[in-house]
């Protein structure tokens, strides 16, 4: 009898510890979730605001950045609140219809976001490496808007496989979000989406930025006789910018792709892997304004003016400098500006 009482007391203590751990975990996750939602909305909203307010930011290149900001804002408003509610309640508390809605928005906004990142890398590649044919593909704002629209269309296509009999919309307890769940019967679609689409985007981003870096480094050597110190500093800035873009994408999106593919193939992963993967995926929405906005010298000037409450007016020489810097996006180097000037990139 005494042994039973002792055992019961031990179980009660263990339950209290477990309950305390669960409450602490939920509080920490809720804080992270709230920070992601707030920064995703405010950061991307600021990108869209300054792009609309400042006439020098209304370029074909920045249309892609605005589109990326819109996908991230949409994710923060129309998808993340359901994820946050599921974390708080440790379950899905909404209807099946709402679950299907969240799954569709997750894939639509997510696919549109990573496609836009690929388009940004392609745009920068042509603008810097092949400026002579850049205007054939990106010279018109109408064409660029069509590219952006297609990114949303492809996102919808990838979000609706259950309509065609591939997978189903369900609440995923480990991810704490509704998603499209597949099994081995639908491995062909999983292979296309995760193995083909995601890897193709990753390779595209990596190759484009590698060739941009190589082109700028070669140009830096050509002007090294005039500015040895400047060009070596430029190489470092270029490498840092390229490294940030590529690593930011890989860190945020590859874990969730690997986890989903592993699960679909029948593999086992601990709960922590799912939690980290989904947090990193959603975190891409709040780091994109930093990578594609704040690191862009033209956007950075506009942000400073917003916080200083200054008017959005620049003289002609300043506008020209900013247009050239925008041609290099987050690669503000002397070498690229010389390329832009030589090829008369607008």
Automatic annotation (TrEMBL):
Gene3D superfamilies: Rhodopsin 7-helix transmembrane proteins
PROSITE patterns associated with the record: G_PROTEIN_RECEP_F1_1, G_PROTEIN_RECEP_F1_2
Keyword Cytoplasm: no
Predominant location category: membrane
Keywords: G-protein coupled receptor, Membrane, Receptor, Transducer, Transmembrane, Transmembrane helix
Annotated compartments: Membrane
Occurrences of domain G-protein coupled receptors family 1 profile (ranges): 43-292
An example Gene Ontology molecular-function term: G protein-coupled receptor activity
A Pfam family hit: 7tm_1
Membrane topology: Multi-pass membrane protein
GO CC, alphabetical: membrane
Residue ranges crossing the lipid bilayer per the database entry: 26-51, 63-83, 103-122, 142-167, 187-210, 246-268, 274-295
Family, per entry: Belongs to the G-protein coupled receptor 1 family.
Protein name: Visual pigment-like receptor peropsin
Lineage, highest ranks first: Eukaryota, Metazoa, Cnidaria, Anthozoa, Hexacorallia
């Amino acid at each position: 009898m005494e042994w039973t009482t002792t055992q019961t007391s031990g179980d009660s203590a263990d339950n209290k510890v477990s309950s305390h751990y669960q409450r602490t975990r939920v509080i920490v996750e809720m804080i992270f979730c709230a920070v992601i939602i707030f920064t995703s909305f405010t950061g991307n909203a600021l990108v869209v605001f300054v792009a609309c307010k400042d006439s020098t930011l209304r370029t074909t290149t920045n249309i892609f950045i605005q589109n990326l900001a819109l996908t991230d804002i949409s994710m923060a408003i129309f998808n993340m609140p359901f994820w946050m509610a599921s974390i708080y309640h440790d379950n899905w508390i909404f209807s099946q219809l709402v679950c299907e809605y969240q799954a569709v928005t997750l894939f639509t906004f997510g696919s549109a976001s990573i496609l836009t990142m690929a388009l940004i890398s392609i745009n920068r590649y042509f603008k810097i490496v092949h400026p002579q044919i850049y205007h054939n593909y990106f010279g018109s704002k109408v064409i660029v808007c069509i590219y952006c629209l297609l990114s949303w269309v492809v996102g919808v296509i990838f979000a609706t496989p259950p309509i065609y009999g591939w997978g189903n919309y369900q609440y995923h307890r480990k991810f704490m979000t509704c998603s499209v769940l597949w099994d081995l019967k639908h491995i062909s679609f999983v292979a296309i989406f995760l193995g083909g689409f995601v890897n193709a985007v990753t390779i595209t981003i990596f190759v484009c930025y590698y060739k941009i870096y190589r082109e700028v480094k070669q140009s830096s050597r050509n002007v090294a006789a005039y500015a040895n110190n400047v060009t070596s500093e430029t190489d470092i800035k270029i490498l840092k910018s390229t490294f940030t873009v590529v690593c930011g994408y890989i860190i945020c999106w590859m874990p969730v792709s690997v986890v989903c593919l592993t699960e679909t193939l029948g593999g086992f992963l601990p709960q922590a892997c799912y939690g980290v993967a989904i947090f990193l995926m959603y975190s891409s929405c709040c780091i994109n304004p930093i990578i594609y906005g704040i690191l862009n010298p033209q956007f950075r000037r506009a942000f400073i003016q917003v916080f200083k409450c200054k008017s959005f007016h620049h003289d002609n020489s300043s506008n020209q400098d900013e247009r050239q810097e925008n041609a290099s996006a987050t690669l503000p180097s002397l070498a690229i500006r010389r390329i832009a000037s030589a090829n008369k990139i607008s």
